[in-house]
Amino acid sequence: MSDDPEVVVQEMEGAAPIDLDHPPTIMSLFDELSLKQHIKRVMHGLRQPKDTGEYKFAMLQIYRLSAPAMAVIVPFFAVLMLAIFGAMGQDATPSKLEVMIVEPETVEMLDEIEDLKDEPIEPPEPIEMEFTPTDAPSVSDVSTPAPAVNQPFAPKPASFDSVAVVKSPIVLKGIIGNRSPGSRGSALSEYGGSGVTEAAVLRALRWLKKEQRPDGSWVSPPVAMTGFGLLCFLAHGETPASEEFGATVEKAIKYLLGKQQANGRFPGNYDIPIATYAICEAYGLTQVPMLQESAEKAIAAVIAGQHESGGWDYNLGPGTRDDTSYMGWCAQALKAGHMAGIQHSDLMPAMKKAVKGFQKNAHPAGGFGYTGPGQGGLTGVGALCMQLLGAAKEKEVRNALVYLDQVTFDWKAPWGARPIYYWYYITQVKFHEGGETWKKWNNVFAMQLVNNQTVLKGAGADGKDIGYWDAPAEAEKSHGLVYNTALCTLMLEVYYRYLPTFKAPKDIDYGDVEVVSSDDVPVDIDI
Questions:
Q1: pTM greater than the 0.85 cutoff
Q2: Do the beta carbons of residue 340 and residue 281 sit within 8 Å?
Q3: Which CATH architecture has domain 173-503?
Q4: Are 163 and 53 in contact (CB under 8 A)?
């Protein structure tokens, strides 16, 4: 594969037949080979050195094909051998049986055994299988995007010369939650969703598909909006192999890969952590090695930009200004990398430090501020991130939940200047809290969203209905329909996107890193 990133992107376009003289592209992993192509590729691979991907692929295919054949041949020969040995053991002449007559003996009767009553056996108590929750991505406020930085494209990951190229059989339950079709239905039923909410999600996904630009991006700013759009499809369990949305997902991934810079960052401001989150989640769902390298570089950049206090500022810049809105997206990008299996020695310490960063901006009476202790719309950001980072039981989260009791979900009388942004976080906070908190919120927000979606009848490419959301408040209208539609879609996907944190058996495992409770360590608060 060429080291030129533009050539690499061109190589990845389309789904042309596999050329045995060149390593496959990232998305050709999802192409289905014909029988003739399989045979040709296997024969070619057997002639290659044993440490190459072609040889490993050929041997893997031989093992796979031999398994069903052996499953038939072995039992056949076993039956055949039994028949042969049975025939050999038979004598041509009838056997004579010698009979001896024995006089009957008088048997002493034993005491009659008392009948035993059948007593029902109590079944063992059921064991509840609990899983560590995954992170729910949060959406940063993109109202003040920084100018794009003109830096060279990142060098693309090495080709698969010594790696067997096969579709990964790995399924990561932690990252995909309940995203498979069957699991989605169960999760919708368990957590209060319905066919009505799912229909609204599908209309939105089809609208996003229609609005995607030829280069795979959405407007605007394109990197951040492409991250948002991609997250909506990934939350629904869509991959490049999906029938209806596969091409949409593939183009979005290619676009982000092409925009990544040599230092692992993406051009823009909020674009950096948003795109990092999307790439990490895409790798978690597909396990494609080329996405792994991209995700690792992006995660390393986010870690490098973290302040000693645990927070982050615009553009991952240095300093002491810890911006809660920007911190929220960075923290969840790290959690996405962790759940996808990204290996970095400082990843777990960075997640632990992030908890301290949010505690620094928490108000003692409940709530989270912008760059210091405060109350208001960013309360959902701080509460959600602490939940996802294993600190759901800390007093900052408990106080925040009390503060959020006052928030309403009313499209005609929206809460705050940027209600969609605030509701997006608050919906996840209440979902992860569960119980009556979630039930009360869910009874209102879901139907409000469904009823306020703009539906375009038969406007899809296949004649199906599509739909989008505009903002109920004037301040958010400038963000555009893609932004508002993406956040509303992710809200309605909350039922199956992640396991709620209240099902987690314990706080997140940080290995040797201890998560410090604010009850034990004083936090300086300037009021």
A1: no
A2: yes
A3: Alpha/alpha barrel (1.50)
A4: yes
